[in-house]
Write a structure and sequence with these properties.
Helices cover 39% and strands 16% of the residues. The chain is built from 15 helices and twelve strands. The longest helix is centred in the first third of the chain and has 30 residues. The protein is globular.
Length: 394
Amino acid sequence: MKISFYWLFLSIGLSACYFAPGPDFRPVPEEAVLPVRQATWLDTFAQEYARYFEEKIHLTNTPGAALVIVKDTQILFVKGYGPRVAGTQDSINEQTVFRIGSLSKGFAGVLTGLLVQDGQLHWDDHVLEYCPDFRLRDPKQAARLQLWHLLSHTTGLPYHAFTNLIEKDFSVPRIVEEYFPTAPVSGKEGEFYAYQNVAVCLIEEIVHQKTGKTYADLLAERIFAPLGMEHASCDYHSLMSEPNKTPPHVPTGWGSWRADKISPHYYNAVAAGGINASIQDMGQWLVCLLGHHPEVAQATTLDQVFRPVVKTDKERRIFPRWLPRDAASYAMGWRVLDDHGDTIIYHGGYVNGYKSEIAFNRKDGIGICALFNAATPLANDCIPTFFEKWKAAK
């Protein structure tokens, strides 16, 4: 079908040129025609997926969402859906800001990679080099911990160690100082995987100690500004000051929703879940992750960040109806999924009632991000469906 459509398009175009050449007529070289065919095919794929996405928004009664699809350097599709606040007429658009939750961990991995790229840090630097007061119940394990253990959730700490204290607004330095020395060690560093929120945030103090700049300033300087992520931020005040934002929503029964309060929780743990962004921002982020901003992140840096470190098959399953349990690993702030031979780099997020999903295939140069202002079941289906449709179309 693709080849037939191409020749039909080419013959119509050449016929039109022959019968009505005009004063500035030039023969159309073959290399000028081929990208038109590719763009049309990709646009058709993106539009078909967007129709699925919009249908599912209605079927799942999702109050609001935003979607972006990227192919290499091109934004194939970007759109907002639903009202910013349920019951109002203000619509979500490409610049509407959401909280992105644990998608923030991917920024932590890449930002650390940029400092490694500059030679300021090394993946095997010891945590104690920058945080001399860091302690665990096992002091020998504490002394062995390196940067890559923090970002891959392989410190040996138990699952979600002290996440409850982040949600009580304890600072990460306080948690590390007062509670880490008493924490049980559940496994050997580098081998035992257990998802974390506090431990990963040690990277904030490490980059501050090394550069003299705050983690927030480095995010803005090294990622947000050069990529044109104009609406991205990582603090509560910035989100509350943003006029074009959508709050989280909670169900009220009978298929209706009401806006909930935006919480300050997790802005004390930016690396784990404190970034705010629009879907337009996330489109630019995807272009970078696909390797098209070497002035920001070199290909070798991205290779290091996305290299699988540890299997996560003992964790609850990721997309259980799509991939087997042993198809998932964790890298530096990113999950790595084996989609029957294709490598998908992925992360999901949940914070304060917001849901978020991002995934991309580096080999094919295709990526997607979806942001939601409610805990919707669509978040569980939009990524598998995207890559199933992609495989069928390419």
